[in-house]
Amino acid sequence: MRRKGSFRLGILAAILLFASVFYYLPFYVSKPGMAKELGPIIEVEGGYEEEGTFMLTTVRMGRANIYSYLTAKLSKYQEIFPLEAIRAENESDEDYTNRQLHMMDSSKVNAIEVAYKKAGLPVQYQFNGIYVLQVVPGMPAEGKLFTGDRILDIDGKDFRSSTEFIEYVSSKKAGEEVTLTVEHQKEKKQVSLALQQFDQSSDRAGIGIVPVDDKDIEVDPNVNVKTDEIGGPSAGLMFSLEIYNQLVEEDLTQGYDIAGTGTIASDGTVGRIGGIEQKVVAADKAGADIFFAPNEKGAKDSNYQAAKRTAEDINTKMEIVPVDTFDDAVDYLEDLSKKQAG
Fold it and tell me: pTM of the entire structure?
């Protein structure tokens, strides 16, 4: 009888153990990801070769179960975030993924523009409409528009930017109706929405979306950036450096392995990102010689300051370099001496 009881307890424990792996807590856990070479990802037609490498850095992010939560609690370079810090209210997994992928696409477009303009090459755009990046809960668009939808016109009017779209909607009052032509999952439809006040303390009214430009960039020579399922905007700086290096004859890498992170705006400004400490750890494990970090104009809590502290803590030989702009990174690389073998 004792053996049967022990066997049953063992089975019950195994079932509970198995179930707890798939029971998700209302948290996300992030940990150091990888440093991935950009040469195989980015190809400029007829571009120049490089002796070293540029690398993007990533963090691994996932929903926490009991074990990953406890592991993160005990790990120095793993972080725990409440669900609402990562995903918007009522945002589905699909919406979150679409938002991350679109931010990556926008990051690629900005990186291409910055690199080609720096190389003195012309850039043109093909505007495709307004991309719905997010839908605000409780507003008229909820349940009628979805993340990933493309707005083609409003009240029969075409727009050339999300700014023009916002200005048009802002000119109307709560209760007024607008009709949108929307492309949803490759099918066109018309959606009519009555504007609503955002809150009682404001006269501003809207339909409740976060709109961004949906556009393709046209350049010569052609460039292909294969990002697959990588999401988010944080690889922008490193994309722009790799593209520019393939466009110009001089090899900016000088034989070094160069990692880094930071968003890139169309004017070349480098912006703050999340998970900088974990990205420094990932770059160090990959053997990077140099790591670019957003300087945020010297702010005390900048990404650069956090990256420098992490580098000291893990005792890396990697050089941490602060940058505010794309030009800062290029200027630093142009002053490098060629890496000596061995």
Answer: 0.83
Helix residue ranges, H only, the chain: 2-21, 66-74, 83-86, 93-118, 162-170, 236-247, 276-285, 303-313, 326-334
Grouping H, G, I as helix, E, B as strand and the rest as coil, residue 153 is strand
Domain chopping of the chain, boundaries: 31-87+106-122+220-334, 124-216
- Report the candidate in 57, 29, 62, 55 with the shortest Cα–Cα distance to residue 279: 57
Confidence band for 295, pLDDT divided at 50, 70 and 90: very high
Q: In the block, which residue shows the tokens 């939808």?
A: 149
65 is written with which tokens?
């179960």
63 phi, psi to nearest 5 deg: -65, 140
Residue 67 CB partners (closer than 8 Å, separation 6+):
20, 21
HSE at residue 2, side-chain half, CA atoms within 13 A, is 0
CATH architecture classification, 31-87+106-122+220-334: 2-Layer Sandwich (3.30)
Domain at 124-216, CATH class: mainly beta
CA dist., res. 113 & res. 265, Å (int): 9
What number of other Cβ atoms are within 10 A of residue 121's Cβ? 12
DSSP string, 15-41: HHHHHHHT---SEEEEEEEEEEESTTT
Query: How far apart are alpha carbons 45 and 291 in whole angstroms?
Result: 27
- The predicted-structure confidence for 206-248, as pLDDT tens digits, reads as follows 999 989 888 889 999 999 998 876 778 899 999 999 999 999 9
Q: Which residues are catalytic?
A: 234, 279
The helix (H) or strand (E) run that includes residue 183 is strand 177-184
Per-residue confidence band for 47, with pLDDT thresholds at 50, 70 and 90: very high
Q: 246, 42 in Cβ contact below 8 A?
A: yes
End-to-end, the C-alpha distance of the chain in Å comes to 69
Contact 213, 151 (CB under 8 A): no
Strands 196-197 and 205-206 turn out to be antiparallel
Report how far Cα 29 is from the mean position of its chain's Cα atoms. Answer: 17
* Placement of tokens 């009991």 in the chain: 66
